[in-house]
Amino acid sequence: MNRKKLLFVSSEKADLKLTGEEHQVIRDAFPDNHKDVHAIREAYVSFRELFNLLENNQSKIQDIEFLQFSGHSGKDGMLFSSDASLNQDGRISVERFKELISVYPNLKVIILNSCSSDYIGKQLRELTHIETVIETTGTVYERDAILFSKLLFQKLNNGDTIRQAFGKVKISFEIGNIQKEERGNKREVFGRTIKNEKFPWQIYVKEGSEWSLTSGLDEKKEEEKEQTASGEKTISQIKNLIAQAKIKPALKAMSGLAENQDDSDMQNTILLFQGRYTRLEKQYNGGVLSQADYRIELNRITHGILSILDDMEEA
Predict the structure, then answer these.
(1) What is the spatial distance between Cα 183 and Cα 242, in angstroms, rounded to a whole number?
(2) What pTM did the predictor assign?
(3) Contact 258, 267 (CB under 8 A)
(4) Which CATH architecture has domain 4-205?
């Protein structure tokens, strides 16, 4: 059964007494038997443990594509739980966090439910595979952070895209469509009263992206049905993948076709293109290539792949 993998982590500290409630909100929204979502929740997470969670939850069927972080953050970086074995106090720079996210291309949505996380979000937006970032522009009340998660997940569960869900949550906060007791009478952060009543969250959505809990799942199920019926993707289906900019699965499907046709020359050619595409993504995500140079090389690879498909079609 195909379900989207969502990862929720918190760097729970003594001064963040309410993050346990946020985990409960997530449990309520995404129980173990949720039909569309496999939610992974971890508290007191160190940076090394976050890496292990991402690494250990890769799969051929569904990788993690949604990550939410709750904790402390700012322009200088993020605060994870300390890691005594590595003699680390938990402070991680923005550049280090971006480097981690860059090597997991299946990640599409990042929510930074922590104070002043917009600088971190701005850096993550530079990664080509990140479609949506929700970040904050200032201090966030602890109880408001929990309520934000609760309302957002409710809207997503109802079928809204993440852009629609965010918009509805923003309106709910701004027009006061929330019971006072839900937000709490004490307007404090870390025991300190503050006066910031501005809605601190903002959203970035890449043009053409409309992520939702169910987006892609129906298409994946249809693709599996087609593969079960025919044993492999047709050239027409592979061209459709390329039209959707899904180069990696297109190359994988082409390799399967060439293998079934016992065409070793074609297999070697496809292998070269797979290597070129992997290097291109690594160079761009690592900041080595400009967007213009990335587009030029991507177009060359795409044209080369289409040329191979035309040759396979004629054969």
Answers:
(1) 47
(2) 0.65
(3) yes
(4) 3-Layer(aba) Sandwich (3.40)
